[in-house]
Amino acid sequence: MDLRIQCLCIDTSDPARLASFWQSALGWRRTYERDEEVVLEPPDGTPEDGVVPDFLFVRVPEDKLGKNRLHLDLRPQDQAAEVARLEGLGARRADVGQGADASWVVMTDPDGNEFCVLRPLTPEQTAAG
After folding, report:
1. Second-level CATH architecture of 7-61
2. CA distances (Å), 123 to each of 47, 67, 80, 90, 98, in order?
3. Helix (H, G, I), strand (E, B), or coil: what is residue 77?
C-alpha cells in the first residue's frame, strides 16, 4: 500500500499561539503560517524530517470540549526535567484518572489538549530497540 500519514491536524482558536508552544516543546520548525493555519515540521535534515507527520494547527471557532480521543506520548531522556521544562512553556499537569503510581505524567498544552511524558527507556530497552 502506498499510503502515509502527512500530518496530524490540531484544532485551536489560536494556531500561532499553540504552534509556538509545540515549536518550543519539540524544537521543530515553522514551515507555513497564515491566520487560519500553521505547519510545524521536524528539524531539517534530522532522521524525523520527511518521516514523522507534520503538525497542522487549524483555526476553529469552538473551544475544546472533553478529553482527547488521540494524544501524543513523548519519551524524554529525563522525565522530571522535561516535565519542568514543559511547565515553563505553559503546559500543566492533568488528572485523567491515571492514578498516583503511573509511570507517565499526563499534561495539557495551552489549549487543554492532553499528552503524556513517559519514563525514559532503560539501557536494555534502548539496546533492544
Report:
1. 2-Layer Sandwich (3.30)
2. 21, 33, 18, 31, 26
3. coil
